[in-house]
Each structure stands twice: as C-alpha cells, then as structure tokens.
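Lecture notes, continued. The same structure-token format from the folding unit now serves as the input rather than the output. Read the line below as a description of shape only.
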C-alpha cells in the first residue's frame, strides 16, 4: 500500500517530468536548436538548458516565463497535465522561391501564427463571442469536384461572392467581411523567401489565415481568396493532394479558379470592361486599369477574360510575355500603392483586446504581450484606438 505522502511525491515527480518534456517540445515546435534557444534565453551555455530539459536542473519562474515568451506559449501549456496537440496549418510556398526556406524558419513562423490564434481565441472567449466560420463550410465533398471540377470551383466562387454580399469590387470588402462577419483570424507577417502563407481550421481556435505582409496588395487579396477556398473545402482534399504550393496540383488550380471568380465576378467585370474598353477593343492599358479597379493582378484579369471567352489564351500569354507591359504595370502600380502600410494585427483583434482590458478581463501585462508593445505605451495606444473612459461610457442598452 502506498502512503499519501508517497502518492504526493509520485505526483510531483510526474509533474516535473511533464514540465521537462513540455519545455523540450515547445523549443522544438518553435524551431530553435538548443544552442539558439540557450543564447536567446541568456544562459551561458547550452548545457544549462539541456539539463533543464532532462530534469537534471530545476527551473525558476522567471526562466519559465522567458521560455513561454520565446516559444510563443501560454504558461498553461507548461503547467497543465493535459494539453491539446497543435493544429497543423496548410502551408503554401512560392512556386519559384528565390531561396529555399529553412524548416526552422517555417516552424518559428508557425508558432507565431498559432500563438496569435490562441490569444485571439481567448479574447473571443472572454467576451462571450460565438464562432461563425462554420456558416461558410457547406456539405461539400469529393463528388462535387469529381466531374467538371474547374466549373464547380468557378461556380463556388460566384456562390460565395453572393453569400458574403461582397459587392461589385470584392477585394475592397473581402478582408473586412471575413474578419467581422465570419470571424476569421487573419494575421499579416513579413515572411521570408519561399514562404507565401498558410491557413488552418480548428474546432478550438477557429479559422486562421496567414498572409505575407511583404506582398503587394493585389497579391494579398488573391492569396486571401485562395486560402478561403481551402478553408471551405478543408474536409474535401487531403494535405497530400493539395501539396505545399510549389506545384499546381488540381486542388491548387481549383483554388485559383475560385479566387478569380470570387474577386472578378463575371457580370461586374464585363460591365467594367465595357466602360473601360473603347470601340469594342481591349487594349493593354485597359487590362491594367481593370486590375487596379478590382484590386487584383493583371495576370488574374487576363486569365479571367480568357475563361470568359473575351480573350484567347495565346493573346493573354503574348501580353504577359511583353516586357514593356510588365514595366508599365509596375510603374502604374507603384504610384498607386506607394503609401500602402499594413498593420500586423487585424483591427478586430485590436478592438477585442482593448475591450477586454477596459472590462478588466485581461491585465495590462497581457494586453501589452498580445499587442507586442511596452507597458509604458498602453495608455497612448488606447487613446489612439479611441478606447478612453469618455468614449467607453455607456449610452444606452443595446
């Protein structure tokens, strides 16, 4: 028979082993070698961190907090007996990357992405907000794409455009509608060479989409629509079928057709073309003007017009292969978007964090951590966001 004292000792030993394993797992998931992590944590050598991970050295509270911040984890991850495994995002890499992205880089980005989703989900929970993302996941299955899959993807884009009520210029509304109507969690990060973005669907965290902040606005719009297809068909195609984006698999082709249909709705595009093109002739400058108007790339406009039988494939390819066209496109876009500045965190995430702080549901320290600012900046941040006592005073019951 084991005494209560021995039972408590056994439980304590078990908790220590869990903590040791969690510390190592967190480091590996974040993509840090033991040497890199030891340096960032301020240890004199990697043997100190190695001893902690092996359970040969105790860890103090300050060190654990430093690890939680470095590895992008909440303290609960290290201290609770059971934690859910990390969801696995669907990653997209560039078709022709300038440099091959290192796996450790992707792991570190992935941990930042998942940490953002965890914080965002916690804010929603604290404010009692319901998830809405399942509204867009209808009962699609493989049979829907087994025959005429490209036509189905095109039709799906048109259907979702109508369902979301995106209007005549969808790119202007898509981000806002996904964040506020469906409560997607969309993060913009400056991603390195080779990485384009990611998406994930999880019953606990909801829907998350990662977009490369370094991309041009029209590229971000298309990538967002592309990832939306993967969210809608999350349970239709396997990650192996989709691939990592470096090759145009059938599901990736479907996603592009969907994005084109969503962002360039047939009736609105043809009406705009009629207004833009004179003498019933399509000119090079018309393509650029349409791309600017709809917030997409000129390539997307050209291939959409091919699909709508307004251009031949050979005509579109000839335009794309013309260096003068590419130079003109870049020049006109540069003037239009020279002032484009993108916030890392979505406005809804910032608003929820401000509301939780004002309601006393999170501490100032948590607020600063979530928004990655110094505590001394909190009051100025709230003031700039409009969350001051006078503006937060109750007017009437909703």
């Amino acid at each position: 028979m084991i005494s209560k004292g021995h039972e408590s000792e056994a439980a304590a030993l078990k908790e220590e082993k869990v903590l040791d394993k969690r510390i190592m797992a967190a480091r590996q998931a974040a993509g840090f070698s033991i040497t890199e992590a030891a340096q960032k944590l301020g240890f004199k050598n990697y043997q100190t961190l190695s001893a902690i991970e092996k359970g040969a050295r105790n860890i103090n509270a300050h060190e654990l907090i430093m690890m939680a911040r470095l590895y992008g984890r909440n303290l609960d991850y290290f201290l609770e007996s059971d934690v859910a495994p990390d969801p696995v995002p669907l990653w997209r890499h560039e078709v022709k990357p300038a440099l091959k992205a290192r796996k450790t880089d992707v792991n570190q980005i992935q941990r930042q992405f998942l940490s953002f989703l965890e914080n965002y989900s916690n804010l929603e929970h604290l404010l009692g907000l319901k998830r809405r993302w399942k509204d867009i996941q209808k009962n699609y299955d493989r049979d829907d794409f087994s025959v005429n899959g490209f036509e189905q993807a095109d039709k799906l884009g048109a259907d979702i455009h109508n369902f979301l009520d995106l209007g005549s210029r969808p790119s202007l509304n898509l981000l806002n509608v996904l964040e506020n109507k469906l409560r997607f969690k969309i993060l913009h990060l400056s991603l390195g060479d080779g990485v384009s973005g990611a998406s994930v669907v999880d019953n606990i965290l909801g829907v998350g989409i990662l977009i490369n902040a370094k991309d041009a606005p029209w590229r971000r719009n298309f990538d967002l629509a592309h990832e939306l297809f993967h969210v809608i068909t999350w349970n239709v195609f396997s990650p192996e079928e989709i691939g990592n984006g470096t090759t145009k698999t059938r599901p990736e082709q479907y996603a592009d057709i969907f994005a084109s249909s969503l962002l360039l709705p047939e009736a609105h595009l043809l009406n705009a073309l009629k207004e833009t093109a004179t003498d019933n002739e399509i000119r090079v400058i018309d393509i650029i003007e349409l791309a600017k108007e709809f917030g997409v790339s000129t390539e997307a406009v050209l291939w959409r017009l091919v699909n709508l039988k307004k251009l031949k494939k050979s005509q579109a390819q000839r335009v794309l292969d013309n260096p003068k066209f590419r130079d003109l496109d870049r020049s006109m876009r540069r003037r239009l978007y020279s002032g484009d500045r993108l916030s890392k965190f979505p406005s809804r995430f910032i608003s929820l964090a401000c509301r939780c702080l004002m309601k006393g549901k999170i501490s100032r320290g948590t607020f600063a951590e979530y928004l990655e600012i110094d505590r001394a900046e909190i009051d100025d941040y709230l003031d700039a966001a409009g969350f001051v006592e006078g503006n937060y005073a109750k007017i009437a019951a909703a």
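Point for the exam: The CA atoms of residues 351 and 385 lie 8 Å apart.
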